[in-house]
Design a protein that fits this description.
Length: about 210
């Protein structure tokens, strides 16, 4: 996911961050569909992904303060329409499109580095979100034996940017010579969630 923020006080602070991570996992799914005129297929796939993956980035502030941002994708579920065409026997190419539902968190911790061996957390703010995005993808499927098939596919999921609010501490300087004092500021951040999936799916199917 991509994030951006700004902090304005005596001066100006701004930062852009890009959280990224990879995870290998097993996910259950269920598909319903029908064949049209032998060569065409229309179906819908319901899938659930218990991800529980976290990433961290840090942004520095003046006078030994810094922010640690944690992004955590807890889980996601999708309902993808599958549009298929069979160019040759036992092989199908298909496109995927449909909504995706994600549960995620964004947490921010403010630290003050007092000296090389003394790190103190000054602030913590957390936000939990549930959002709806759009998934698009494509793949191909091989009929292996009787009622078994093997799918290879790729999907990209995009969610609308979400606003996250948190409090942070920073050092204010308003004297000559400088006298550093702790300040508290409310900050808004824009978080844009996106993720992609490369999948290998083994299916067992039956006809009604």
């Amino acid at each position: 996911n991509r994030t951006s923020e700004s902090l304005r006080a005596e001066g100006t602070y701004s930062a852009n961050g890009h959280h990224s991570c990879r995870k290998l996992q097993l996910s259950p799914s269920m598909e319903f569909g029908l064949t049209i005129k032998e060569d065409y297929y229309l179906g819908i796939i319901f899938g659930y992904h218990y991800t529980r993956v976290s990433t961290y980035i840090k942004n520095s502030l003046p006078y030994s303060y810094f922010l640690e941002h944690e992004f955590k994708l807890n889980s996601s579920a999708d309902a993808l329409f599958k549009f298929g065409y069979t160019p040759i026997q036992k092989m199908m190419i298909f496109a995927l499109a449909g909504p995706s539902f994600a549960s995620w968190e964004h947490n921010t911790r403010t630290f003050l580095l007092k000296d090389e061996n003394n790190l103190e957390m000054r602030r913590y703010s957390g936000s939990k979100k549930k959002t709806v995005g759009l998934s698009l993808g494509a793949g191909f499927e091989f009929l292996m034996h009787d009622n078994y098939a093997l799918d290879c596919f790729y999907t990209l999921t995009l969610h609308r940017p979400q606003s996250v609010s948190y409090q942070t501490s920073y050092a204010g300087v308003n004297h000559t010579p400088p006298i550093i004092s702790d300040r508290v500021l409310d900050v808004q951040k824009s978080v844009r969630l996106s993720y992609s999936t490369i999948g290998l799916r083994l299916s067992y199917f039956f006809s009604l």
